């Protein structure tokens, strides 16, 4: 079974990445930043950590205000550096652990957390500032990550208590994963800082020291604080430290402090923290019961004849072709699809197999492969094919045979405008 070996707390200020990329290791003004992360890196090596579950917030880079979720779990195998305005950092991509991330996602939903999921999105300094500090002279840290993006910038946001409960659910999820893995929970963000308004530049080192002490010894006091109290003590943006309660909630009641350091050179009190988890082995019966709990809702669905549940694994394996067909909602892409398919498909990196599936309208084969119906519906609309014709193809029937099984013979589509009229009058 996977095992949580401990917890890490680390600031994710862009200051950290800037210091790394510009070689400030020997500069006295920047050196304390590197010393703190040296301690984290040494502990990660000592504990043979294989996966970092990284809790961070995106800074309106990959996640914009038009669709802003509270908890977004990464379910990808690679996470590229994001361009935050001046070009992406020259750092190694983060490698994702597909199996663990998909298992955690299933477990959290089973525990009634309404999750969102992401893949194919780059990650910004919220994740990369601390992760890039795991590299050394021999290259990048060789382990894998499972990223959790927490929406803490557009109010309302989850409470400190909700973060704590999330951590408890996260522990159940990780400990029920069947592969033997050493996992560390890494919370990022903070400490005190504010970067907007007349209060920009606010720091409160006394509160930061108290926060870290309470996190170790009396986390329940932090759990019961309101967001406004965090904003008052730590600055509005500094209230993101509630994410550290996910990490602490995922650990045992008893932890051992391994390392703690703060350094406030400019806008943010930059912190590094390491806890050993002192909890024992999980109860085997409880683990088995939770595994059954995770699979309860979908138990037997995959055995239904002619049914292909669209799981995270199917989604990940077919993201490219699904993304290509989803782009048919864009007029320019749609026009090229009709008039210059081969070049368009090549530009989007489709394989010859994927091109053949689309080119020859292999509707059921695409479903079996892992293309979701709702992009096929868009493809059909572009081609002037009604939905019932697609359903008939799925069943290996002519349109007349399919319509004979319906109470009313009718054609319809998601198309609009002239295309809709064309389908209606076929």
What does this structure look like?
The protein is α/β, with parallel strands linked by helices. The chain has two domains: 3-295, LigB-like (Protocatechuate 4,5-dioxygenase, Chain B, 3-Layer(aba) Sandwich); 318-424, Dioxygenase LigAB, LigA subunit (Protocatechuate 4,5-dioxygenase, Chain A). Helices cover 43% and strands 13% of the residues. It contains 20 helices and ten strands. It has helices at 14-21, 31-46, 98-110, 125-132, 160-175, 205-217, 219-223, 227-234, 244-250, 284-295, 312-317, 319-326, 331-339, 341-347, 352-359, 363-369, 373-383, 387-395, 399-403, 417-424; strands at residues 3-10, 51-56, 71-74, 78-79, 94-95, 116-118, 144-150, 182-188, 255-263, 270-277. Strand 9 and strand 10 (270-277) form a beta hairpin. The chain is elongated. The relative contact order is 0.13.
């Amino acid at each position: 079974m996977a095992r949580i070996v401990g917890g890490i707390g680390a600031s994710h200020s862009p200051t950290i990445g800037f210091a790394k990329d510009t070689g400030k290791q020997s500069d006295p003004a920047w050196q304390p930043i590197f010393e703190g992360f040296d301690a984290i890196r040494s502990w990660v090596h000592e504990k043979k950590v294989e996966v970092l579950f990284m809790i961070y917030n995106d800074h309106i880079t990959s996640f914009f205000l038009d669709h802003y979720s509270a908890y977004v779990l990464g379910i990808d195998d690679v996470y590229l550096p994001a361009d935050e305005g001046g070009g992406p950092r020259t750092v190694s991509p983060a490698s994702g652990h597909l199996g663990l991330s998909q298992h955690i996602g299933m477990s959290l939903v089973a525990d009634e957390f309404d999750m969102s999921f992401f893949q194919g999105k780059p990650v910004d300094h919220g994740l990369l500032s601390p992760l890039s500090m795991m590299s050394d002279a021999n290259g990048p840290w060789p382990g894998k990550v499972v990223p959790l993006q927490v929406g803490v910038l557009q109010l309302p946001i989850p409470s400190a208590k909700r973060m704590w409960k999330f951590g408890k659910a996260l522990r159940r999820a990780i400990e029920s994963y069947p592969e033997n893995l050493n996992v560390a929970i890494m919370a990022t963000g903070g400490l005190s800082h504010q970067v907007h308004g007349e209060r920009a530049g606010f720091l409160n080192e006394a509160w930061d020291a108290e926060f870290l002490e309470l996190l170790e010894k009396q986390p329940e006091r932090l759990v019961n604080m309101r967001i406004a109290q965090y904003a008052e003590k730590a600055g509005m943006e500094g209230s993101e430290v509630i994410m550290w309660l996910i990490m602490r909630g995922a650990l045992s009641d008893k932890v051992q402090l391994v390392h703690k350091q703060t350094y406030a050179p400019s806008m943010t009190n930059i912190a590094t923290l390491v806890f050993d988890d002192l909890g024992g082995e999980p109860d085997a019966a409880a683990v088995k019961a939770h595994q059954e709990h995770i699979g309860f809702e979908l138990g037997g669905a995959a055995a239904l004849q002619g049914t292909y549940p669209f799981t995270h694994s199917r989604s990940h394996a077919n993201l490219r072709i699904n993304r290509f067909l989803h782009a048919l909602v864009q007029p320019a892409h749609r026009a090229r699809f009709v008039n210059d398919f081969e070049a368009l498909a090549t530009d989007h990196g489709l394989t010859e197999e994927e091109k053949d599936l689309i080119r020859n309208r292999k509707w059921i084969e695409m479903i079996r492969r892992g293309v979701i119906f709702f992009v096929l519906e868009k493809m059909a609309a572009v081609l002037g094919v009604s939905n019932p014709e697609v359903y008939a193809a799925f069943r290996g029937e002519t349109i007349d045979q399919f319509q004979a099984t319906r109470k009313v013979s009718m054609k319809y589509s998601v198309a609009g405008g002239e295309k809709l009229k064309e389908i209606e009058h076929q």
